[in-house]
Design brief:
Belongs to the adenylyl cyclase class-4/guanylyl cyclase family. With 990 residues, this protein is an alpha/beta fold. It contains 28 helices and 33 strands.
Length: 990
């Protein structure tokens, strides 16, 4: 068996550089064949390849000879499989590599690039890749390997390249084995890796408190095998996960798939599916038939990138309504970027005086760096030579059946940012890690409430009795669980909450199970949360009312900090509720045993409704951002209070100077706050917005050092001196309500003025769309019926040679020109009793005599208007070509028409009849800078006197025969009409 390799230049010429025919070693013979002329490479285990210069090593490269040349010779070799039905196939990725080589050849003329592709057959085997790499390295010193993409081939080539000190850049190789950079010291991976994917999966499992996971993977697919291997060992750390593996084959029968799913359900309720798209669809269909869509199970899958080779991960299939096109995969773009990044690194080494043939030098330039200019955007390479990958967590929207983003994972920061709630079955919460009765249902009856202690039972009855008594004044807040397991600890917490009574704390009556959901029962606060009120209410807040709100919050915190609860722990402006009397009620504290049963995605939104989980971190103190396991104490509440002070001052979100806040912006803010720089990063608040006392309060409360922040008690004493409190509660309440009523009166007055102004604008717009008479009838609710008009005068005009002018102008220039011209025309026609019907392109249509009849004056007004327009266009210059003027061609005819309003959306007042067609013909058969009028119009003009018109002669009109027409020359009210006989002969209608 022989292997034919044809080396061609990258400049596109057809002459090969060299042709080499070499016997190929059998796959089972390893590297024992003679692949270098005149030398023999002994067989070695792949992890024991001889170092350069040692006995048995291939001939070393000659870097010194290359460096003496003013042009560095960069020889790239790609060993990529072909026709293997993988995303790495050379039929897909080859053109990208060739294009990249052409690009860098132009960018770096001081580097001469050559590229050789070796066919790795249709299998990703370490023997084949190792043999081809050794053969190319012996034939000519290789400066870099691009690819291969599959992990199996990289294990051998990566070890050999490290021994040879040659860089390897690839968009594949996601195996954890390749992450050992002590062995693969010159390997750079530009695609996702199993290590960062494992971090994301771990974070999702911890987020939902899932510890028992069943990994169901296709044992025939290499990628799913790698994923299974990555998750085979239990995760380290305090949140240890128990992983069970269930392999299957793509051709498994439905019965075998059901058996596999049933077996997995005995160990877990969370299934991670690692397979191609069609196999995943089959698994889910069988899971549906087993009733696994009852809300107890969660199914997750990994789609590394969209590709036909991975299959369709959508629910629709061919013949359904969805049609998804193939997109360029990160594998292809990664191989392109591999060449771009290598060329950039070589250039950097050359500029620094280094040796570009030293693979370690080139590799270290790339590692721990951020590189732009590639086809896939900005690329962050970590200190281990792997790209920091971001991921999107998607879920199927049950309303549309499409995948939609619910979370974003930043690989560089290791942060999961929630974008949207997951659509769990039935609108409920995330499935629990383990059912109440166990995976096999052998843990006794599924009773969510099982209380046997008489004292505990009586406490519960009293608790629920209080709810029933005050139901008219309470609010039911769902807490995200369908059942609540009541314990003695929980009942003691409820008792503690009932005893925690303060004017500025929201009273929690208890919990209620209703319609399959559990609710907290609290006092009702009609104004909603403080954060929502500040950002959305049009009410003005004077500083006396703002200080009262601040005092309420501090009073509630002071009570909490001296109670058994100790601190709030997660204070935000959404946890500050406003009742009908504008009193602040703090909520969202205590009840730790209930929170433990709440899904993680609901827990931070204990009572709040207007902030997402990721945004809630904006209120968290920096010491808790650095260590999220650290207990949240009173000093953290003071920092959160400082952020609320900023909201009260600016009426924006926290850090409102960076509005609008997108997930990347939130991440950037959290990073800067967590960094603890000097000065620390805090919201920007203009001193013009706040008084000095409020600003100083913020500065003290968001101090970087927790012990430097004032206590709630100290804040209360400080605010008592600045807040002018009334001598008794009733007076204080009346004073606050008076300010509120006064505020409402000002708001009503402003809204009324705004309404009247908007009404005027709407009417003005209506008068521009329809004749005023018609518009008034429509405003009064009257029906506008079509109407016949015995005699009106219709005007048409257009711009001469408009088509030629448009051809040499841009669309924007044409729009600007027409807008300027017709704005001028509109000002002129407002002086006459006419109505502009429409403008279409350069055509301008005007009528007089309707909808309000004006006798025979319609002919006079239209003709006077036409003369004015003719004079005006002489002074108009084309905006984008001031040297050029425009010419107008106009036609006028008088006769009967029918008119009426047509359409509901964008209604138009339209004219119908032969008069309209004839007026249009008068325009098209006219001449530039002339007004062409019919004999009917001319007869009416004679009755007024002063109009000067000359006969044009007979003009042939379609459907009319020969018509006698005239040129309108001008108007002089002191001169009688005179005719000048000038027969120009018949003119054919266009």
């Amino acid at each position: 068996m022989t292997d034919v390799v044809e080396l061609r230049p990258t400049d596109g010429s057809t002459e090969p550089l060299a042709t080499h025919v070499q016997p190929r070693a059998h796959a089972g013979q390893g590297l024992a064949r003679d692949v270098c002329p005149g030398s023999l490479i002994p067989a070695h285990p792949l992890d024991q390849l001889p170092a350069p210069g040692s006995p048995g090593a291939p001939p070393p490269a000659a870097p010194a000879a290359r460096l003496r040349s003013p042009v560095f010779e960069a020889h790239l070799v790609s060993i990529i499989v072909s026709k293997a039905r993988t995303p790495f196939d050379y039929e897909i990725s080859g053109p990208a590599i060739e294009l990249a080589v052409e690009t860098v050849s132009q960018l770096y003329p001081h580097i001469r690039f050559t590229h050789v592709y070796r066919n790795g057959s249709n299998r990703c085997t370490p023997d084949e890749a190792g043999y081809l790499a050794a053969e190319e390295h012996c034939r000519r010193p290789v400066t870099a390997f691009i690819g291969p993409g599959c992990s199996e081939a990289l294990t051998s080539l990566g070890r050999m390249a490290a021994k040879w000190n040659v860089p390897v850049l690839t968009s594949g190789g996601s195996s954890q084995l390749l992450g050992d950079k002590k062995v693969f010291s010159t390997l750079t991976r530009l695609s996702h890796t199993m290590d960062d994917l494992k971090q994301l999966i771990r974070r999702v499992f911890i987020k939902y408190q899932w510890r028992n996971i069943a990994v169901i993977y296709n044992e025939e697919w290499s990628y799913s095998r790698l994923l299974g291997t990555a998750l085979r060992r239990r995760f380290d750390g305090p949140d240890r996960l128990h992983i069970e593996h269930y392999p299957f084959r793509a051709d498994a029968s439905p019965n075998k798939i059901r058996q596999l799913l049933t077996s997995a359900a005995e160990q877990a309720r969370v299934f991670l599916l690692a397979a191609q798209g069609d196999s995943i669809r089959s698994l889910l269909l069988e899971a549906h038939s087993l009733g696994f869509n009852n809300g107890e199970f969660a199914f997750l899958t990994v789609e590394p990138f969209r590709s036909k080779t991975l299959g369709n991960f959508g629910w629709h299939r061919e013949g359904d309504s969805e049609d998804r096109n193939e997109v360029t995969t990160p594998v292809v773009t990664g191989l392109y970027d591999s060449v771009i990044i290598y060329a950039w690194a070589v250039d950097q080494v050359l500029r620094s005086g280094g040796d570009p043939s030293n693979g370690v030098q080139v590799t270290r330039v790339i590692w721990n760096n951020t590189i732009s200019g590639g086809i896939s955007g900005i690329i962050k390479i970590n200190s281990y030579g792997d790209r920091e990958s971001d991921y999107t967590v998607t879920d199927i929207n049950p309303s549309t059946g499409d995948w939609e983003e619910v979370a974003h994972w930043s690989g560089a920061e290791g942060v999961l940012i929630e974008v949207h709630d997951v659509w769990w079955p039935g609108g409920g919460a995330a499935p629990a890690n383990q059912p109440l009765c166990g995976y096999a249902g052998d843990r006794g009856p599924c009773r969510p409430l099982e209380v046997t202690d008489p004292l505990v039972l009586s406490s519960l009855i009293v608790l629920l009795g209080l709810v029933a008594l005050s139901v008219a004044n309470v609010f039911l807040k769902p807490i995200g669980v369908s059942k609540l397991v009541v314990s003695k600890e929980m009942l003691l917490e409820f008792k503690q909450m009932r005893e925690t009574s303060h004017d500025n704390l929201l009273y929690l009556h208890g919990a209620l199970q209703f319609a399959g959901r559990v609710y907290f029962v609290t006092d009702y606060c009609s104004k909603g949360s403080l954060g929502h009120f500040l950002r959305n209410s049009p009410l003005k807040l004077d500083w006396s009312l703002r200080r009262a709100i601040v005092f309420d919050i501090v009073s509630g915190l002071d009570y909490l900090h001296h109670s058994e609860i100790g601190s709030h722990g997660s204070l935000t402006s959404s946890d500050c509720l406003l009742n009908g009397r504008f009193t602040v009620k703090l909520t969202g504290f205590g009840m730790g045993s209930v929170r433990a049963q709440m899904p993680p995605n609901v827990r931070p939104e204990f009572i709040a409704q207007y902030v997402t989980i990721s945004e809630r971190l904006l209120w968290v103190a920096p010491e808790n951002l650095r260590d999220q396991e650290k207990p949240r104490v009173a000093t953290g509440d003071i920092f959160s209070f400082a952020i609320i002070l900023q909201e009260i001052a600016t009426r924006t979100m926290p850090y409102g100077h960076m509005t609008p806040l997108e997930p990347p912006d939130v991440l950037e803010i959290l990073q800067r706050v967590r960094a603890g720089t000097t000065p620390p990063f805090r919201p920007e608040v203009s001193r013009d917005l706040v008084d000095e006392a409020h600003f100083e309060l913020m500065r003290q409360c968001w101090d970087e050092l927790p012990h430097q922040r004032p206590t709630a008690a100290a804040l209360k004493r400080q605010l008592t001196r600045t807040v002018k409190a009334s001598p008794n509660l009733l007076d204080a309440l009346l004073e606050r309500m008076e300010r509120y009523v006064s505020n409402l009166e000002d708001l009503v007055e402003e809204k009324s003025a705004a309404f009247l102004e908007e009404k005027r604008r709407s009417e003005e717009l209506l008068y521009q769309v329809l004749p005023r008479y018609i518009a008034e009838q429509l405003k009064q609710g009257k029906q506008v019926r079509p109407e016949n008009f015995e005699s009106v005068t219709v005007y048409f005009s257009d711009i001469v040679e408009f088509t030629a002018l448009s051809a040499i102008s841009t669309p924007i220039q044409v729009v600007d020109m027409l807008n300027g011209l017709y704005t001028l025309f509109d000002r002129i026609i407002s002086n006459y009793d006419v109505y502009k019907v429409e403008t279409i392109g350069d055509a301008y249509m005007v009528v007089s005599g309707l909808p309000v009849r004006n006798g025979n004056l319609h002919a006079k007004h239209i003709c006077l208007m036409a003369l004015s327009l003719l004079e005006a266009i002489k002074q108009f210059h084309v905006p984008h070509d001031p040297e050029k003027t425009l010419q107008l061609r106009a036609g006028i005819h008088t006769g009967p028409v029918a008119a009426g309003v047509v359409g509901l959306k964008m209604p138009r007042y339209c004219l119908f009849g032969d008069t309209v067609n004839t007026a249009s013909r008068m325009e098209t058969t006219g001449h530039a800078m002339n007004i062409h009028i019919s004999s009917g119009t001319r007869d009416l003009l004679n009755s007024f006197g002063g109009f000067q018109a000359v006969p044009r002669g007979g003009v042939v009109m379609k459907g009319k025969g020969v018509m006698k027409t005239f040129w309108l020359l001008g108007y002089n009210q002191d001169v009688n009409t005179r005719d000048v006989i000038e027969d120009l002969g018949p003119v054919e209608s266009e």
